[in-house]
Specification:
The chain is globular. It is mainly alpha-helical. The chain is about 55% helix and about 5% strand. It has a two-stranded antiparallel sheet. Strands 3-4 form a two-stranded antiparallel sheet. The protein has one domain: Up-down Bundle (Hypothetical Protein Ta1238, Chain: A), CATH 1.20.1200. A hairpin with a 4-residue loop joins strand 1 and strand 2. Pathway: Cofactor biosynthesis; adenosylcobalamin biosynthesis; adenosylcobalamin from cob(II)yrinate a,c-diamide: step 2/7.
Amino acid sequence: MKIYTRSGDEGKTSLIGARVDKDDLRVEAYGTIDEVNCLIGQAMAELPKEQFSRIYNELQKIQHELFDCGSDLAVVYEKNKHPFKTTQAMIDDLEKRIDDYVDEAPALEKFILPGGSKSATLIHSARAVTRRAERQIVSLKREHQIHNLVLMYINRLSDYLFALARVINYRLQVNDVEYERSAIVFKTDKSS
């Protein structure tokens, strides 16, 4: 099987329903989602798999969902004949995980620096790239109709990755480093 087609040699690529330049906003957005997926895979390779089996499985599920998001962005909305793959249930699941991880990690008052364990650092990197993907999707949405659940999912994913990085550090007994010039920006009362 050949993996090259030569069809992109002139700087064009195919969407589902159109052919566009390789630097088209859609391609930039789903390409950045692919970068997030790679960083998540790298973080998974660093996680002690037995200690973090549930998180490992969650991240693998998210990798599949990121393919769904990329696929939905590659569809020209007006020409779509099939249901989109990104669902509200995927977003709801991320929200539940976020709540669980926020409850597990120590209370946070100030901004923290990305870092700690190698796995958490890679998750923070994935979070930062997820934010870039979100910005690109917002730019895309200004010019084209998109499946809005993709934007919602990516927004929630960055929150999930932040909460996850903190939990990984916490379970590995690695302290987060507070940004030294940060004001108190987060409520610390976990009972409300």
